[in-house]
Design a protein that fits this description.
Layout (H helix, E strand, L loop, with lengths): L2 H9 L5 H16 L5 H13 L3 H8 L20 H31 L2 H31 L3
Helix pairs in contact: 2-3, 2-4, 5-6
Length: 148
């Protein structure tokens, strides 16, 4: 395939969550720079969330200036996601700190054979599992969606 045929085939492909987020990022940049009104921005974001194909996403940004990108690739987001990176780092630190405290409690409980420390260590282990369950999927999603 060449040029237009390849673009038509690509437009029929289904869009991913990352593709939708990338388009929403471009819409945010356009809104911040005054290229879209609040109503236009809200409407386009709603349509981006329901878009199923690249063609539907492309229509949302056709009239906006876009930085040129590599051929055959989706336009690169103007700025990386520092908020997502900060969230991943903060969540990772919370899990790491809780794991260290849990390990210290288990070590102290085993060394002293103190029943109260066993209960504290068990509680800390449950806390680690709860934090990991609550933040793990979010952290994994942010890590997978990070710009490469």
């Amino acid at each position: 395939m060449s040029g237009p045929e390849e673009q038509l085939a690509r437009n029929r492909l289904r869009a991913s969550h990352a593709d939708r987020e990338q388009v929403i990022g471009l819409l945010k940049v356009a809104f911040v720079h005054g290229r879209l009104t609040k109503e236009e921005f809200d409407g386009r974001v709603d349509r981006a969330f329901t878009a199923r194909t690249y063609a539907e996403l492309t229509r949302l940004t056709d009239d906006l200036p876009v930085l040129p990108s590599a051929p055959g690739r989706w336009p690169v987001q103007a700025c990386p996601r520092p908020l997502a990176d900060a969230e991943v780092q903060q969540g990772g630190r919370a899990i790491a700190h809780t794991v260290v405290i849990t390990m210290l409690l288990w070590t102290a409980a085993i060394v002293t054979f103190n029943g109260a420390l066993f209960i504290a260590a068990f509680g800390a282990t449950c806390t680690v599992l709860a934090i990991s369950a609550m933040t793990g999927s979010r952290l994994l999603g942010l890590w997978l969606d990070r710009p490469r």
